[in-house]
Amino acid sequence: MVDWIQGLMDSLGYVGILLLMVLENLFPPIPSELILPSAGFAAARGDMSLPVVILMGTLGSVLGTLPLYYIGRAFGEKRLMDWADRHGKWLTLSGKDIKKADDWFDRHGSKAVLFGRMIPGIRSLLSLPAGMSEMPLPKFLLYSGIGSALWATLLTGAGYLLGENYDRVEQYVGPASRIILGALAVAAVWWLLKRRREQSGQTNH
Question: Which residue ranges run through the membrane (predicted)?
Answer without folding.
Answer: 12-30, 50-71, 140-163, 175-193
